[in-house]
Amino acid sequence: MPLPHLPDAFEGYTILHLSDLHLDYKPAIYEALIKCLGDVSYDLCVITGDYRRSTFGPFEACMEIMAEVRKHIRDPVYGILGNHDFIEMLDLFETMDLPILMNETVPIERDGDVIYLAGVDDPHFYLADNLEKTLADVPP
Q1: What is the dihedral sign for C-alpha 134, 137, 139, 140?
Q2: What's this model's pTM, rounded to 2 decimal places?
């Protein structure tokens, strides 16, 4: 994907994007994911929510599976919550060393150049997005 203002140091930089994993749906899904993670090369991994199938109810089983999947994801990795996820999951993500971005950015540095990864909270289901806050620390 061509990005006209991408700093030169990020030419060839690859991002693995995982989304809508719904890990507690079928064991074959996460087993296949773990197998694939061993074969793919990337510089950064982003996981964009919906770690679990249900929108309500217990989430512990899903998080146990995610902890296993996380062991196969190389750093750096960042995530956001989806509309199937909720704030009570954050402590468990922290124990997995998987930072969840909640209306915030992180600088990604490479050979002296910087790009910013932004994580915006759910704008549709929980109406918790705040783009202004998210981009407050990003230079123009």
Answers
A1: positive
A2: 0.91
Residue of 72, 71, 59, 57 lying closest to 23 (CA atoms)? 59
How many domains does the chain divide into?
1
Query: pLDDT of 38-74, one tens digit each?
Result: 999 999 999 999 999 988 889 999 999 999 999 999 9
Which residue, 113, 109, 107, 104, is CA-closest to 135?
Answer: 104
Sign of CA dihedral 48, 100, 137, 42: negative
Angle between the 60-70 and 27-37 helix axes, to the nearest 10 degrees? Answer: 20
CATH of the domain at 25: 3.60.21.10
The answer to whether position 36 is within a domain reads yes
